[in-house]
Every structure is written in C-alpha cells, then in structure tokens.
Amino acid sequence: DAGVIQSPRHEVTEMGQEVTLRCKPISGHDYLFWYRQTMMRGLELLIYFNNNVPIDDSGMPEDRFSAKMPNASFSTLKIQPSEPRDSAVYFCASSPGALTYNEQFFGPGTRLTVL
Amino acid sequence: DQQVKQNSPSLSVQEGRISILNCDYTNSMFDYFLWYKKYPAEGPTFLISISSIKDKNEDGRFTVFLNKSAKHLSLHIVPSQPGDSAVYFCAALAHLNTGTASKLTFGTGTRLQVTL
Question: By C-alpha distance, which of A90, A79, A111 is closest to A23?
C-alpha cells in the first residue's frame, strides 16, 4: 500500500484565491482526519470523518474552511477565500478505527503559502 | 489554550547520550498519551504510548514516563543516535463514557538534534 497520499505537496497562492487540498486514505481505513500544523499551535485537528460522514468539525477555524468526503477513497479540504494566516502545513491521516490512535497514519502533508 | 505543552522548542544532544523530551498537560481527563516522531517533508509517525494506569512504558531505546500528579510525561531516548534527529510531538486523549475517545490533542513539538 502506498500509504496516505496528499496533493499537492506545495501550494503557493494569493490572498483571496480558492485553495483545494486533496487526500487519498489507506484502503480499508474507516476514519479520515485533517490536521493543520503551525509553529504556534502545533498539530490541530480540523475535522474527521467516519465512513465518509463528518463526525467532528469543531476544529474548523471558520466558515472559509470546508471539507468533503464523497467516497471512501477521496477527501478534500477547501479554503475560500484564502488568507495569509492560513499558511501552514496541512496533514491528512487515516486509521482503521477511532480508538486505534497507534495506527493513525499520516500523509506527507501539503505546505500552503498564502501571499 | 494549549492543553498539551512542550515548552522546549528544541534540544541538542550528543550521540550516545540520553535525550529527554518533556510534555505537560492541563486536562485531568486525559488518560492516554502518545509520542509521534516527524522527519522533514514527512507526516508524523507513531512512536510510543502510555496509558494512565501505568507510569512507565519501554520499547527498545525509547521509554515514556508518566507522572499523573504533576500532569507531566517525558520521553527518554537512550542511547541517542543521529537518526533520532526529528521533531517529536506529544499527544493526549481522553476515553469517554460512551466508549469512544476524544480527539487527539497535540503539543507544539520539540526539535531534537543528535550531534556526532
């Protein structure tokens, strides 16, 4: 298995533009997580899905952020409009179960820079 | 409000010596703690964990100690190797009465540099 796949690996955009980050979880994993890493706050959970259904989106910073999981093998995180403070590394992770945190596998991340 | 704190952003240790990474938490409901390791341009990977019913868990060169009264845990790496150079994240969660778990709460990370 190739592991969790994220694209793009790097994204540079201008303030006000729409940004879409993509994630393909490990096949067979029922849980998908979106995290954001910043220097000030470390790794923060934005939202997670169970069987394609959003379970907890309390970490989504504001309405400019939205996430979807149309099927078991694909998820997107969209920021519209983007702002410079959204610059961070965004990670997608998947796991076979909610309590199997030892088996939460992270993708390589997308480094987002908003100018 | 950081519920999990790693107050040392960086640490430098000589090869062969002990590395001690510290983590403090404020939420008394946390009952399971994990350490993740992250290399540049890669996602974090699970390293070691400990339940609140224990005060120590060991896996090879890695040992995690938990002091519940002080709400403090530490990761010891002995002996340290150059390949251990990475960012280490402490994380915590609480098991809920519903049989599920809270989300993982991470610290800000400590960058470990093991020098020759």
Answer: A90
